[in-house]
Amino acid sequence: MTDFTYGVVMVEDDQPFDMGQVNTQDVPEEAVATYIQIIEQLLKHDNQGKQYAGLGFEGAEKLAFSALPVEEHDKIATGLVYNPDNNGENLVLVGRVFFSIKERSVSFNMETNADDVLVQGDEDLRGFVQSFIVCFMAAWVELNKAHLA
């Protein structure tokens, strides 16, 4: 797997919070392979950004994401949504995630209601968002490793 380190920033109420550095080699190869398949499937659709896939983690069945390339081989954006009814209707936008290989960064821009949606009683889905970000970025780097500088 490609050795690639990048920074993660969470943006809430227009305030950036540095979440530290992540290396793609810390992600299990099975997760990377799964995310590569999911991303490739999402990018094959004509209406990119409007098709959603589940995160693939047990316990995160109500979370899904889209994929929309911004710049070929570099930037891709995702919309992270909460699916309260498990039927694809009434999706609630939790945030937008921007992945950039050239800038070696991931930015998760939370919606104002994100904490209310992700934390309900004893259920806290925020950890799944972090797992999604590292799995997605590792897969995106692998898909584009031929174009790395």
UniProtKB/TrEMBL annotation:
Domain of life: Bacteria
Descriptive protein name: Molecular chaperone GroEL
Species per Swiss-Prot/TrEMBL record: Photobacterium leiognathi
